[in-house]
């Protein structure tokens, strides 16, 4: 769809996502202003933010939270803050967001975890849940995701959850980004019940 049509569709046919949902190991809570201290800490973590283009200061973190709170109001879905269900420790953030690239809009899957959570399968767990919710609750045929080309771990998560590489989006060298997508029909085919 052209940008104007997609934007109108996402607003007019908006479906509200739950404020809180659970995966086997994570509790996801709709991002709110009260999560700002955690987001500031995440954005200041050099190890984490190396996978996302560099650290952000407190002002950038305030803007990020404000934009995501507004996104929820406008679209009825957005970013969640994640905690470990068993320990209560803050783990990361993830969600779906409406983005604009050129003259087209897209709904993108996004996720980021604290370094102590890396390598435990949390990203794949939340990504699979968000893709399922996206196709069940939103009137879209494609969900996408973007990562730095050099972020091999994130690209593996995308591939394991059914997204396929579709090309580079922007940047050169260390800032080069790649786009992945999954189509509704592909997701349905992968999750269809086995026939008797």
Summarize this entry quickly:
With 196 residues, this protein is an alpha+beta fold. The chain is built from 7 helices and 8 strands. Helix 2 crosses helix 4 (58-75).
Helix content: 25-40%
- Gyration radius, rounded: 16 Å
Assembly of the depicted chains: single chain
Note the main sheet: 8 strands, mixed
Q: What value does the average pLDDT take?
A: 89
Uncertain runs are 1-9
β-strand percent reads: 25-35%
Strand order of the largest sheet: 1-2-3-4-5-6-8-7
* End-to-end separation: 38 Å
Classify the secondary structure makeup into a structural class.
alpha+beta
Global outline: globular
Task: Spell the H/E element sequence.
Answer: HEEHHHEEEHEHEEH
Q: What is the strand tally?
A: 8
How many H/I helical runs?
Answer: 7
């Amino acid at each position: 769809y052209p940008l104007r049509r997609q934007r109108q569709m996402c607003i007019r046919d908006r479906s509200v996502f739950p404020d809180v949902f659970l995966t086997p190991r994570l509790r996801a809570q709709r991002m709110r202003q009260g999560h700002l201290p955690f987001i500031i800490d995440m954005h200041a973590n050099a190890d984490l933010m190396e996978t996302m283009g560099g650290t952000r200061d407190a002002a950038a973190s305030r803007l990020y939270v404000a934009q995501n709170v507004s996104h929820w109001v406008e679209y009825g879905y957005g970013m969640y803050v994640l905690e470990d269900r068993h320990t209560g420790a803050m783990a990361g953030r993830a969600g779906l967001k409406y983005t604009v690239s050129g003259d087209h809009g897209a709904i993108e899957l996004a996720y980021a975890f604290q370094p102590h959570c890396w390598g435990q399968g949390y990203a794949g767990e939340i990504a699979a849940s968000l893709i399922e919710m996206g196709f069940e609750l939103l009137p879209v045929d494609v969900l996408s995701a973007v990562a730095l080309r050099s972020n091999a771990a994130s690209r593996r998560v995308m591939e394991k959850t059914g997204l396929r590489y579709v090309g580079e989006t922007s940047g050169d060298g260390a800032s080069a980004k790649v786009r992945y997508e999954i189509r509704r029909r592909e997701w349905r085919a992968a999750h269809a019940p086995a026939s008797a």
